[in-house]
Structures are given as structure tokens and as C-alpha cells.
Write a structure and sequence with these properties.
Layout (H helix, E strand, L loop, with lengths): L23 H7 L9 H27 L1
């Protein structure tokens, strides 16, 4: 039974005569993580702080009712 890529598996890797190879550092940069939603983390933290302060204020009000 013939496997799918048996005819190509031992062929040499193509290197273009026209286009120079990209430096390894630039190639690596293509795959580095990036912030698709820049600033989103800051917005989440600000929202969390507002919600926490609101919840804490409501808890203080509730404690005052039961005293």
C-alpha cells in the first residue's frame, strides 16, 4: 500500500532564488503572542474594582440595618 507523501518525502527543501530567506528572529516574531484586544485587561480590572466597591458598600449598608 502506497502512503500519501512517499513520492515527496525525500525531496530536497526548495530555496527561492528570487526571495531572500527571512532572518530567524523575524520568523519567530510572527508567532509570538500578541494582544488582539489591547487595553481589554485594563477595562476588566477597572470594572472589577467598581463592582467590588459597590458590593462592599452594599454589604456595609446591610450590616448597619442589622445592628
Amino acid at each position: 500500500m502506497k502512503k500519501t507523501y512517499d513520492d515527496m518525502i525525500d525531496m530536497p527543501h526548495h530555496v527561492s532564488d528570487r526571495h531572500p530567506q527571512m532572518p530567524m528572529a523575524e520568523r519567530a516574531a510572527q508567532f509570538s503572542p500578541f494582544a488582539a484586544l489591547s487595553g481589554y485587561g485594563d477595562v476588566i480590572r477597572e470594572t472589577e474594582a467598581r463592582v467590588r466597591s459597590k458590593v462592599e458598600a452594599e454589604e456595609r449598608e446591610d450590616e448597619g440595618e442589622y445592628e
